[in-house]
Amino acid sequence: MRIGIDARITYYSRGGIRNYVVHLLDALAAVDRESRYFVLHSRKDPTPPHPSPTFRSVACWTPAHYRLDRLTFGLEAARLGLDLLHSPDFIPPAFGYRHSIITVHDLNFLYYPEFLTAESYRYYVQQIGWAVNRASHILVDSHATKADVVAHLDVLESKITVAHLAADRAYRPQPPDVCCAVAAKYGLDPGYLIFVGTLEPRKNLPGLLTAYRQLLDEKVTAVPLVIVGTKGWLYDDVFQKVQALRLASHVHFLHQVPDADLPALYSAATLLVSPSFYEGFGLPALEAMSCGTPVIVADRASLPEIVGDAGLLADPDDPFTITRQMSRVLEDPALQARLSERGLRQAARFTWARTAQVTLSAYRRVLDEG
After folding, report:
1. pTM of the model
2. Torsional sign, CA 64, 38, 90, 259
């Protein structure tokens, strides 16, 4: 099989889709030594993904999310004679391959158009219908996203395969001395609350800040809230909320954290809180559980599916429920221990090897049927 994988996003983003592409490539290299892979990456990328000798790096001029992407990227792909092209960022070119598979990570732009800039909303809405119809098959990160695609885009269930994501193997409980050293690097002591994710409206950071203010007012705890993540879009409300709630001395923003520090930052935290309005998968919750850190997540979309019985749920529209769940964990060391143990077991169910096997099976199914 001659399989192309669109990896251009790895140059333009540090977010979840980039991590998905990098980990998927490595895992596919481990499980498939027969197919020939072509990794289509940005020509500007000085270190393009190239996980094994069966993978060939192909520099492309078309940038990710270019407005003429369907045409220009198709011209670049056409010269490779691909049997199949996988588009992990969901938008395939109009031609240049025999079959295509796309990955749809979420449909948050259909549920919450107000959480995007007008330009981004137009871009995604204009592309998604065409993309799912053009694709030979669709991969999704969760059963929740599969249900969304079926319900909102009129796609047959048989055309969709769930391929859960996984945490990197680096995410595991860290020794106390490592936790202390990494926390000190950022001016912290172990025991804080943590949020990890891009600063954007659907993450519901104003709701978390409101819940945290109430936690302080009730004197349940005085530990800081650490927010780890780069600025995305429409994030001004977050900083305005910090000022309005008089939280400047209690909230620590860490915008540029190396991946190598994250396992210790998770491990040093008492609790991860992820009250997002919508997540297609919710990787920070899985990373935290892999480190033995208890988690509280929103009771909607994919998050209950990912955490199972290993985490507590809260209504993201009601900050009081977030406060109540945080109080339960912080005031009950036995509950903390149970959640930590359950989280480690739940996280172990998700592996990149399994993700790669499911993905490879989808590739073969499409080509066998073609």
Report:
1. 0.93
2. negative
CATH of region 2-166+351-369: 3.40.50.2000
Q: Which candidate, 60, 18, 15, 52, places its Cα nearest to that of 36?
A: 52
Nearest residue to 128 via CA among 332, 362, 120, 190: 120
Distance between CA atoms of residues 293 and 296, nearest Å: 10
Side by side, the strands of the sheet bearing 82-87 are: 55-60, 36-42, 2-6, 82-87, 97-104, 137-140, 160-162
| Mean pLDDT of each 10-residue bin along the chain, 370 residues long | 95 84 96 95 91 93 91 97 96 95 95 87 89 97 97 96 97 98 98 96 97 97 96 92 98 95 98 97 96 98 97 97 98 98 98 98 94
Quote the pLDDT of residue 65. 85
Name the residue ranges covered by the structural domains of the chain. Answer: 2-166+351-369, 176-347
Q: Which residue has the tokens 């249900």?
A: 147
Q: Which amino acid is residue 122, in one-letter code?
A: R
Residues 6 or more apart whose Cβ sits within 8 Å of residue 239: none
Distance of CA 197 to the CA centre of its chain: 8
Topology agreement, domain 2-166+351-369 and domain 176-347:
yes
- What span, in angstroms and rounded, lies between the C-alpha atoms of 109 and 115? 7
Q: Classify the C-alpha dihedral 99-146-273-238 as positive or negative.
A: positive
Number of other residues whose CB lies within 10 A of the CB of residue 146:
20
Q: Residues 113, 121: contact at Cβ < 8 Å?
A: yes
> Going by C-beta distance under 8 Å and a sequence separation of 6 or more, which residues neighbour residue 17?
9, 88, 89, 105
Q: Would you state the pLDDT for residue 284?
A: 96
Estimate to the nearest angstrom the gap between the alpha carbon of 314 and the chain centroid: 20
Cβ–Cβ under 8 Å, residues 137 and 362:
yes
Instruction: Look at the block and give the residue holding tokens 């997002």.
Output: 276
- Give the CATH architecture of domain 176-347: 3-Layer(aba) Sandwich (3.40)
